[in-house]
């Protein structure tokens, strides 16, 4: 093959695995299946705004480094845009745009009065000291201050960001504005107006959807096994709540390594080990595993909780699970998805499965706005109600249209947004009621 051909092939592969391309194709498909005109897709394909910022940081050794960050604000017809901020070396414009579209869809599925937003900085946080990371977090907010805020766009944590980072960011925003504005972001420390239950919310939501899926499949969770890829905020909380439902978690991987224990990993012990600074690759109370092997294990439930494009044609081919619960955003490539479909795996799609995070973020914002706080039990109950409703709306669409859970989730999300677009006059009644006889 010539170099040119190799390049062309590489471009096709990267285009197919480009999250923006993936979300576009899935949206087009759902717009068509709903019988809407292409105008609906045209309104949704691009974010309202994509902001690129450069941050000049003086490093501890005295050198100056430039960092690039983005914020994508997709749609604001139901309320402020909302979504996490990611610190990762592989952040790109297209990734941030796709992630913001996914945020619009998941808020729509859960009926939250929010639109989609997402941000990211191209950085490997492991290469920065805590002081440098704080400077970078504050610099990012300084650049974005004019375009974010509790009624405009509300950030939150995502990959490699956490309540500590949210605390720095909120402080920077408040200093610039001159007063305390806790609703400008969510996922902040409890002491600064964070919500009870937010840290656990995404994992809790994932497990609620697994519980509902198991019910549909007549699966007994107390005799089921699971493997989890990624043990950060989402993966660890998912493991914790799976263990509460007596699911046997036999394998867990993270970037540093993977572990396997046939009769189940003691999640409480592992969480204590991680909290005391340990990493999975050093955990000696379970067998060490090559992280790649996690895909082919004989388990009932597989949970990707790391990054995009992990379930590929190859890894899906190895998979034996009956349920794939997409805790991560965009973990499955189109080719991987086709393999899962052929194997009749019950996929709980990301825009439904991981929507517990933004749901409790919404509750956090509501509490900040009214300056009155709910108990953890209240939050858990409200989250459960929303997740169960969301799951059954998607399931209903799946059954009604004889389609798959992923397509059904897109259809529920797009239909909700389309109704809002029509009410605002962005699309016309004819765009939603095409004459299908021609
Ligand atoms: N934090 C939240 O509330 C929400 C997060 N998500 C999504 O969930 C996923 C995980 O996010 P967080 O847990 O917040 O991030 P995190 O930064 O807390 O954890 C990420 C985890 O992924 C692991 N990882 C990275 N590359 C890996 C690889 N190749 N193999 C195995 N593990 C790998 C890391 O070691 C780490 O354990 C992301 O896709 C994120 O967008 C979705 C909804 C809400
Ligand atoms: O909590 C939020 O607002 C957003 C969480 C998020 O980034 C996500 O759902 O991907």
Automatic annotation (TrEMBL):
InterPro entries: Aminoacid_DH-like_N_sf, Glu/Leu/Phe/Val/Trp_DH, Glu/Leu/Phe/Val/Trp_DH_C, Glu/Leu/Phe/Val/Trp_DH_dimer, Glu/Leu/Phe/Val_DH_AS, Glu_DH, NAD(P)-bd_dom_sf, NAD_bind_Glu_DH. Residues 195-425 form the Glutamate/phenylalanine/leucine/valine/L-tryptophan dehydrogenase C-terminal domain. The active site is at 118 (proton donor). Signal peptide: none annotated. It comes from the Bacteria. The record marks 158 as: Important for catalysis. GO terms for molecular function: glutamate dehydrogenase (NAD+) activity; nucleotide binding. PROSITE patterns: GLFV_DEHYDROGENASE. Pfam families: ELFV_dehydrog, ELFV_dehydrog_N. The keyword Protein biosynthesis does not apply. One of its GO terms (biological process) is L-glutamate catabolic process. Keywords: NAD, Nucleotide-binding, Oxidoreductase. NAD(+) binds at residues 202, 233. Substrate binds at residues 82, 106, 361. The keyword NAD applies. PANTHER family: GLUTAMATE DEHYDROGENASE, GLUTAMATE DEHYDROGENASE 1, MITOCHONDRIAL. Belongs to the Glu/Leu/Phe/Val dehydrogenases family. This is Glutamate dehydrogenase. It comes from Salsuginibacillus halophilus.
């Amino acid at each position: 093959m010539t170099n040119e051909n190799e390049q062309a092939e590489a471009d096709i592969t990267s285009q197919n695995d480009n999250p923006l391309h993936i979300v576009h194709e899935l949206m087009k498909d759902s717009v068509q299946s709903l019988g809407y005109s292409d105008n609906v897709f045209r309104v949704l394909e691009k974010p309202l705004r994509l902001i690129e910022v450069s941050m000049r940081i003086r490093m501890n050794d005295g050198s100056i480094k430039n960092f690039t960050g983005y914020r994508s604000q997709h749609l604001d017809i139901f309320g402020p845009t909302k979504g996490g901020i990611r610190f990762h070396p592989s952040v790109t414009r297209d990734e941030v745009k796709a992630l913001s579209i996914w945020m619009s869809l998941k808020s729509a599925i859960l009926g939250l009065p929010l639109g989609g937003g997402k941000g990211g900085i191209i950085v490997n946080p492991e290469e920065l000291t805590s002081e440098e990371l704080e400077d970078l977090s504050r610099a990012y907010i300084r650049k974005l201050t004019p375009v974010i805020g509790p009624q405009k766009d509300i950030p939150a944590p995502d990959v490699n960001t956490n309540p500590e980072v949210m605390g720095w960011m909120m402080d920077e925003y408040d200093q610039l504005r001159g007063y305390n504005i806790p609703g400008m972001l969510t996922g902040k420390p409890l002491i600064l107006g964070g919500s009870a239950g937010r840290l656990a919310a995404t994992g809790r939501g994932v497990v609620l959807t697994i519980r509902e899926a198991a019910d549909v499949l007549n699966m007994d969770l107390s005799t089921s096994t699971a493997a989890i890829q990624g043990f950060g905020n989402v993966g660890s909380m998912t493991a914790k709540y799976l263990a509460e439902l007596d699911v046997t978690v036999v394998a867990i991987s993270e970037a540093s390594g993977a572990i396997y224990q046939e009769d189940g990993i003691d999640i409480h012990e592992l969480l204590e080990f991680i909290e005391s600074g340990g990493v999975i690759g050093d955990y000696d109370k379970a067998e060490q595993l090559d992280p790649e092997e996690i895909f082919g294990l004989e388990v009932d439930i597989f949970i990707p909780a790391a990054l995009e494009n992990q379930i590929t044609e190859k890894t899906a081919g190895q998979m034996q699970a009956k349920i794939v619960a997409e805790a991560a955003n965009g973990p499955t490539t189109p080719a991987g998805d086709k393999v899962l479909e052929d194997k009749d795996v019950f996929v709980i799609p990301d825009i439904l499965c991981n929507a517990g995070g933004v749901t409790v973020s919404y509750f956090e914002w509501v509490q900040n706005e009214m300056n009155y706080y709910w108990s953890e039990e209240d939050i858990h109950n409200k989250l459960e109600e929303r997740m169960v409703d969301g799951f059954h709306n998607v399931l209903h669409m799946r059954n009604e249209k004889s389609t798959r859970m992923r397509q059904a989730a897109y259809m529920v999300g797009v239909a909700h947004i389309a109704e809002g677009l029509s009410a605002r006059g962005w699309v016309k009644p004819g765009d939603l009621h095409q004459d299908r006889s021609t």
